[in-house]
Amino acid sequence: MIASVLLGLFALQGAEIRPMIECSEHMNDDRALLSCLSGLLEAAEDDLDTALAAARQEASEIDLDMPGVADAASRLGAAHSAWIAYRDAECERRASLLLIGDDAEAVATDCRIALTRARATELETQ
Length: 126
Description:
The chain is an all-alpha fold. It has one domain (2-125): Substrate Binding Domain Of Dnak, Chain:A, Domain 2. Helices cover 79% and strands 0% of the residues. It is built from five helices and no strands. The chain has helices spanning 2-11, 19-22, 30-65, 72-98, 103-125. Helix 3 runs antiparallel to helix 4 (72-98). The longest helix is centred in the middle third of the chain and has 36 residues, at 30-65. The model is unreliable at 7-12 (pLDDT under 50). Pfam families: LprI. InterPro entries: LprI-like_N. This is Lysozyme inhibitor LprI family protein.
């Protein structure tokens, strides 16, 4: 019952396929579900690391072109640190709203995956 409610909630949150939906074959096995979500989070973080490395390279080039003016690299670092804090706090907030115990970890991980994927796309396209 809870699994079907969660699937419905996550399907309505956006046009992209939610991580919980991607791992839905494991909905009746908590350990397998968390393992699936952990794998998706690891892949999303790898993609974010790649996008962040490219953004850092671009920021460094901007700083070389305009020394002492843009400070792009340090601003990117500050923005990324703030974004990580936001992501983690927001996902914990979303998980706490459900008040369903063990499923909170899966909900928080689903959120981290979705936000991490969105951030990687943002860095790649800006």
